[in-house]
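pasting for the record
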Amino acid sequence: MNRIVLIGNGFDLAHGLKTSYQDFIEWYWDKRVSSLISIRGKVSEDILCKLTILGESAWSTFYWLNNSPIRNTKGSDIIQAIREKTDSYKVEDSPFFKSIIQSINTKKWVDIEEEYYKLLTQYAFEENAQNKLITLNNQLKYIQDLLVEYLTTINDKELSKQSFIYSKIYSPINIKDIAVGSVDILKQYVEQCVERDEKWINNKIHGYGAAEHAFPEDHSKIKESFEKHNNVLEVEIPRPYLLPHSVLLLNFNYTHTVQLYHNNKLGVVTNIHGSIEEPQSVIFGYGDELDERYNKIKETDNDECRRNIKSIKYLESANYRDVLSFMESAPYQIYIMGHSCGKSDRTLLNTLFEHKNCISIKPFYYKKEDGTDNYLELAQNISRNFKDMKLMRDRVVNKTYCDTIV
């Protein structure tokens, strides 16, 4: 029995990295403001946004605002200030970038890939929208390149492995986490472990390196317990038998934080969306083939509509096939650590969640400063990645047996 750990952006945030899209946009505004000051011109323009200073007096005010010691130095504050002075400044956002900014202003967060998909599905069925589609795709590529640049600047931060996160990733399987429809699979797995000799068990324990997983004295009595009880939940199973055979760290981030938790004796790391060390490998786009609009897009004759489909981009490397092979190799439990399970990865998540070998989906939720948490929100997002809601209710671990990511 294996385990697949879905590593999302919340995992990086839990390690103190400012990897949210909101942090990225803040960096972008700082970069744009600095650029305008350095060239001492009145216009700064890129494919996302055009900034214009109207008149010499307005430029002087802008320069003072940027260098005044009494103001907040964030570039976004400067941009907001000049947006409000329409007689002196002009800020022109592209429709794509405008939707990103609006999401940040109203929701305090943004999913850039989802905002892209919204506009794509709008343009795909408009007449004479070819130029719009080309521009939208070019803007997404531009943002992707900027994101790689930004993440590279913060990826050098010294990070330490957090022992409590490591212990959760490599913890024994909790019997109560297992879907009702999969308890027999767990029983078979434990029985197979019992059939093994003491050397095999000790080799497995050695990979985990934990004293509490010592070879059980009652090794020979487990069979008797199974013969007495039909329900595996009634059997006291020693911890070593519940240790996953192999652990796949499925990294959806572009950073290498996950490498801190790689135990090469127990499993592998797969950077399913590439990494900033290899910018050409980065996958950035949309992956919601369950959406009814997707099938309509797929049938269009316009290749621009399909340029950023994740499932097609997965074909550029062996990563996706490796994940499928891991899924097929043995029953597995899914841990969700920092992944929001949003719609931009819906195709892959549905494949993982509804696969015949998936026996449990355990989300690790985030507890907020006010005492509330995001378990329900996370559960709702997980449910959107299922077609079979009965299966979802059985496989997703209820909050009683879940834990926080930190």
